[in-house]
Write a structure and sequence with these properties.
By secondary structure, the chain is mainly alpha-helical. The chain is built from five helices and no strands. It holds the Pfam family Oxidored_q2.
Length: about 120
């Protein structure tokens, strides 16, 4: 079991980040901490895509002038492109989330979800 974790440490780290992010989204009442949990969850997914895309001895997918198809191990650039796109979307999501959190705090004076529900129920 230890050898498996040592050889697949990226997957173990991904599950740890996934668990921490999911726990932060569910267990915390503070909206900022929930947003941090979303970011940790996203980071775990990014790590998963990069770990799956790894090819031992792989090269950039540029075909040489004299290709020998049996010996060339090429890495697919698609997972990396997807991760870069997801990072941009994650940054936009974080920015919008923080803007909403600032607006909620300005309007209600709190960032706790349970307090916000009580205030909204009174209105």
């Amino acid at each position: 079991m230890i050898e498996l974790l040592a050889s697949r440490y990226a997957y173990a780290l991904m599950f740890v980040l996934l668990g921490i992010g999911l726990y932060m989204m569910i267990a915390n009442e503070n909206l900022v901490k929930k947003l941090i949990g979303v970011n940790l969850f996203q980071t775990a997914i990014f790590l998963f895509f990069v770990a799956v895309a790894f090819v031992e001895g792989g090269r950039a997918p540029i075909v040489p002038a004299d290709p020998n198809p049996g010996e060339i191990a090429m890495a697919s650039p698609l997972p990396h492109v997807i991760v870069l796109t997801a990072i941009v979307v994650g940054i936009a999501l974080t920015a919008v989330g923080l803007a909403l959190i600032v607006r909620i705090y300005a309007e209600y004076g709190t960032l706790r979800e349970d307090t916000l529900r009580e205030v909204r129920a009174d209105e």
